[in-house]
Amino acid sequence: MLIQRPKPIVNQVADILRERIRRQTYLPGDRLPSESDLAQELGVSRSTVRTVLTKFASERLIIRRQGDGTYVNERVEDVASHYGGIWDFSRLIEANNYKPSIQTISIQERTATSDEAIQLEIIPQSNVISIVRLFCADDRPVIYATNLFPKELFNVDVNRLNGNLPIHEMVQTFYTDQISYVTSDIEATLVEAYLKEILHWNNDQPLLKLKEIFYSQEHKPLILGISFYDHATLRLRLVQSWG
Amino acid sequence: MLIQRPKPIVNQVADILRERIRRQTYLPGDRLPSESDLAQELGVSRSTVRTVLTKFASERLIIRRQGDGTYVNERVEDVASHYGGIWDFSRLIEANNYKPSIQTISIQERTATSDEAIQLEIIPQSNVISIVRLFCADDRPVIYATNLFPKELFNVDVNRLNGNLPIHEMVQTFYTDQISYVTSDIEATLVEAYLKEILHWNNDQPLLKLKEIFYSQEHKPLILGISFYDHATLRLRLVQSWG
DNA sequence: TAGTGGTCTAGACCACCCT
DNA sequence: GGGTGGTCTAGACCACTAC
Nearest protein residue to D16's C1' (by CA)? Predict the structure, then answer.
């Protein structure tokens, strides 16, 4: 196996091994080659292989047993698609085996409410870009999401905004700062009439409401998101490590 | 600084540095000594220090900037208490600045329903221990939690069960297998009459319902938990890394 | 330019599991 | 005993940031 030097070797190794697990070159439950063998095959040091395997183990993609070997998690699909982020709704829809699509309902510039300004830590009444979108799973509406972007953070023309992009690509394109972590507050809420209509919600069951704040590495709030989530159609599952 | 050899050095280093951050020897926002300096001071290699700092960075306890230095996260308390698990309700209550207490409502042995048997991957109609508890924040009821333990997993007398223990201590005490990861399905639900009474819930607002399954390293389900969660009193906040 | 974190290597030794 | 993952070291070189 040839390793190209320009990109970090660890990432290349991670890509290769992740692909082998995804394509079932290593079947679920199978034992992987030993760390030394992998290192030799890929022409890298054992430490490099171990860095990758440690990351995979933390994602529950593999199981390591001292004195025995390293095994592919038998429930890769179960765990892999759900591990970590619940912020990328398109990916979440895909993970539930639906075809994701996005309808942009509105994009506009307006002044922030006082509460929004506090959440985003911006000057009261300063301008924000509001994007309202509807995420569908197999064309069935499942998430109604509002995202607020402080105007001052944009480094290019706001008019080039495209509602079809995932959040992290928007940030990559329009911001200087990049997303480092996300806080999500989860609540249950009754459904107001206008939402019932939009989400084709024909009963009185409650929905989930997510309030998410996306932060930069410097802890600056980059985006505020409020979403209404149909948990009956789209399972909201977290996978968390114990240790 | 003296390092004792019996315990893994990485853990010792982690304990020392975590303590310094907790006790604000390194103040929030402060720059830590360089990796080389720390390594020298503690008498370990730079790699060992880096292993620890990498872990801390993944917990958002610190921020690393190439070419600059390593800094203590200015919002340690914000992040540290919320990072990771939402399964340990007592800890969650503490993180929200309430005094946690637990009322054990019932402990009994019974046969599993067919659905429960499927979830726990046990033989239909085999026995489970059911523990129903009420978690209070400053003596106000906030979480109504049912936990099911397959009888066959117990390695000691069931009667020694004590409802006041956190889940992970119960498992440590009564099981051979230990908890490795947890899946949590989150839903919104209306509140039935008996629950309204127990939780002193005087309105028609919905609650959160959590279905959690605790797994061993071998992916064997160890515990099934169903909980009703008062999000109005107790904020359910996740902190997730982007990368 | 000096100092920081980021990447990577080569190799030693240990703890553990299998047969 | 032989092989596996777990721990730890020493040191090289690179990429980046501050000054």
Answer: B67
Would you call A206 and B186 a contact, using CB atoms and an 8 Å cutoff? no
Question: Which 3 state secondary structure label does DSSP give B30?
Answer: coil
Rounded to the nearest 10 degrees, the angle between the axes of helix B46-58 and helix B9-22 is 50
Q: Comparing B178 with B226, which gets the higher pLDDT?
A: B226
Round the CA-based radius of gyration of chain B to a whole number and report it.
21
Contacting residues of A for B183, CB less than 8 Å apart: 78, 82, 237-240
Q: Of all protein residues, which has its CA closest to the C1' atom of D17?
A: B67
On whether the CB atoms of residues A103 and A97 are closer than 8 A, the answer is: no
- Rounded to whole angstroms, how far apart are CA atoms B147 and B116? 11
Model confidence pLDDT, tens digit, residues B83-101? 556 678 887 888 788 889 9
> Torsion over CA of B137, B139, B140 and B145, rounded to 10 degrees?
70
In the numeric block, which tokens belong to residue B176? 């051979």
SS3 A146: strand
Q: Give the chain A residue nearest B167 (alpha carbons).
A: A242
Which of these, A62, A159, A153, lies nearest to B181 by C-alpha position?
Answer: A62
The enclosing H or E element of A16 equals: helix A9-22
The answer to whether the CB of B172 falls within 8 A of the CB of B154 is no
Comparing CA positions, the residue from A46, A43, A52 lying closest to residue A21 is A52
3-state secondary structure A193-212: HHHHHHCCCCCCCCEEEEEE
Beta sheet of B237-241, edge-to-edge order: A100-111, A127-137, A140-150, A221-229, A207-216, A179-189, B237-241
Residue contact B188–A179, C-beta within 8 A: no
**How many helices and strands (H and E) does chain A possess?**
8, 9
How large a percentage of chain B has pLDDT more than 70?
92
Surface-to-core class of residue A38, CB atoms within 10 Å of its CB (0-12 exposed, 13-18 middle, 19+ buried): buried
Residue in B62, B238, B241 to test binding to A, most A beta-carbons within 10 Å = B238
- Cross-chain residue pair B73–A183, CB shorter than 8 Å: no
Residues of chain B with Cβ-Cβ distance to A204 below 8 Å are 190
**Over residues A97-123, mean pLDDT:** 93
